[in-house]
Amino acid sequence: MEDAAKLGPAEEVPENQRIQPATGRGGALVERTSTPGGLALVSPYHTHRAGDPLDLVALAEQVQKADEFIRANATNKLMVIAEQIQHLQEQARKEWGTGCPHDFLGAYKLQYDLSWTPYEDIEKHDAQISIVNTLLSQPAALPPNTEPTFLGLTENGHS
């Protein structure tokens, strides 16, 4: 309002178009302090206190409430996912009809190194990884002979 008084006679802003402060003392709409205008709206002790840490019954009640809250949130999110899955299944039935529009080409497993293993080779590949993991987990030194040996690494001792 003081700025309007500094303007010249041709630039004066009419009273009904002046910008009014958000509060009577020129404050903002949102205060950044816990005591806006010097007055505490809520008790910080009661808003930040979860309970007496030595009261085990109150602590157990708080844990139970938190568990129920987490369970309710997880249930709600899973319900949304289930509804989306049902919608996609209905949409797929409408688009595909009674059969899949494409021929089955094969099944693959995505490995940790981001390579793909055909379904028929998954057990063999997993066995090889198991052997390598066993080798890496053994603290023993390598054998003195130059030929690799896998004795003790497979079930019957033969590779």
From TrEMBL:
<dbReference type="InterPro" id="IPR019534">
    <property type="entry name" value="DUF2452"/>
</dbReference>
<protein>
    <submittedName>
        <fullName>Uncharacterized protein C1orf50 homolog isoform X2</fullName>
    </submittedName>
</protein>
<feature type="region of interest" description="Disordered">
    <location>
        <begin position="1"/>
        <end position="29"/>
    </location>
</feature>
<dbReference type="Pfam" id="PF10504">
    <property type="entry name" value="DUF2452"/>
</dbReference>
